[in-house]
Amino acid sequence: MTRELWSIDARDPRTVWAALVPALEGTGAAILPHPASPSGLPETVPANVAVVVETSGSTGRPKRVMLSAEALKASAAASEELLGGSGQWLLAVPAHYIAGINVLVRSHLAGTEPVMMKPNGFSAETFIAAAGELTAGRRFVSFVPVQLARLLESDDAVDILGTFSRILVGGQSIPATLLAAARARGLNVTTTYGSSETSGGCIWDGRALDGVHVRLVDDRIELAGPMLAEGYLNDPRRSAFSFREHDGTRWYRTDDVGEFVDGVLRVRGRADDMIISGGVKVSLAEVETAVRALPGHSEAVVVAAPHPEWGEAPVVVTTSAIDLDTLRQLVTAQLFAAAAPARVMLIDAIPLLGTGKPDRLALASLVLK
The domain containing residue 298 runs over which residues? Predict the structure, then answer.
């Protein structure tokens, strides 16, 4: 059996909210929220699919992830349990990505009306204005790291953030210095890890939500639980590769590598971010974490570039000048010599995707010029 699939204009999140509720309850069509008119969209999807999410495509071709109402509700219920109950949400991230959809699903299950910011023009001023519309005592918000960093620059915004019961930050790795700065100012920040394929963040502060299972297979992170997607729309080959059954349990094979440290999952970076430099395996994500800990470089990005002697080497792209020798000494001390960046590229602004994530494909092309 199938159901209709509608493309929903996500530039106004209220349009997504209006279509999402009947999609979840089975009284309306399945939806694909999108900021533009997507191409190649089929008329129908499997009957149990409620929402199709198009991934950001930050490192390759975007995928269309099929999510059932049951998966989205399971994720929301587990989140609410860890939050200690329901409350009112402020939507500060785009409604066509899973983090935004989750805010709306949680609001629906809680029976509360979310306050919705428009996806463009995020600033301390627009955040403060939107937060002023919240009416509940318990309030929550979800950010990407760059949004939180921007708000920490405003004392007024920090005062408002202090009234939130919980602040979720995910979508990409959060610099340790940013997390420490937020917590030092008394903000209740929780880091989240997950993807569209897991109905959003299912690992909070390195620990799995209720019902979620985590394992490492050759260092690759695999996740299981009721929040898993049905697969990829019209892409059975990719679905079969990413979603696999083992001993009666269906697992999602992520693109990330990780490790457990005292029972807490530590995400080391993407599997395709691992390079071999001078015969040594180097994680670009770990180099990036070390660089971002430096004052003024919290948004720096590390990408790979060919090297005539080592094969490949890390290159730091940043908006603030830094001495290369000093940087190499720092990374060598924190990691090892092969991880030291070969060069620094200074640019005016880091190109971003709609989610606020760095456009790594654009940066990788830039360092090759």
Answer: 278-368
